[in-house]
Amino acid sequence: MSAFTENAFLGGQLILRQPAKGYRAGVDPVLLAASVPAKDGQSVLELGCGVGTALFCLARRVPDLTLSAIEVQQGYADLARQNAALNGIEADIVTGDLSDMPASLRDRQFDHVIANPPYFDRAASTRAQDSGREVAMGEDTPLDDWVDVAARRLKPKGFASFIHRAERLPGLLAAFSGRLGSVQVTPLQARVSRDAGLVLIRARKGGRSDFRLSAPVVMHEGTHHESDADSYTARIRAVLRNGAALEIT
Description:
Elements: E1 4-9, E2 14-19, H1 28-35, E3 43-47, H2 53-61, E4 66-71, H3 74-86, E5 91-95, H4 103-106, E6 110-115, E7 120-121, H5 131-137, E8 138-139, H6 143-153, E9 154-165, H7 169-176, E10 181-189, E11 196-204, E12 212-213, E13 217-218, H8 234-242
């Protein structure tokens, strides 16, 4: 992938190379990383890491982690490796398909598995013209497989953390059923007057707690968009600019 840009994340704490055209990371993987309850010394696997945005944002907040990822697109995996080196982060980035997990990852278990799966069911949406963006955004591997792989790669009591569109929540909950317990869903609202557009979903291998629907996290101040100025709430600004944790209780 020859044409790329370098973009600052977390207020400049992280510099990431991204393709000039194609899928480019927004705030979603940053929010996912901020929500992961990782602790020093633990291990993390990201399914479908792209250029490494979520994994490396998490590494900036919790520096003593063992990091691994799988990415099906060679060009994006190469950029993830470059980004690890660029930011002085040690990570094992494997090129491969999560539905046919390479042995180097299949033989291991992790404290955390994180994922930002493709959002759009192509049976009900239009394919992107750019092939890289299409693979990143258009669902090819079913959600059920993403959850199954996450559950298999987790250690007992390990956490799976996903971010996805709110309308895909029923399918995700069905996939979690019987595989992971202690499911907690946190809606993400653009504004107080809006329906939730995204959800954060956390579950635990062997968890037995009741299902929890957390209070929504509101992204922007005010009831509607008024200008192009930064309107993030203080809570979200701390995540995006300072790399703070997105505490979910």
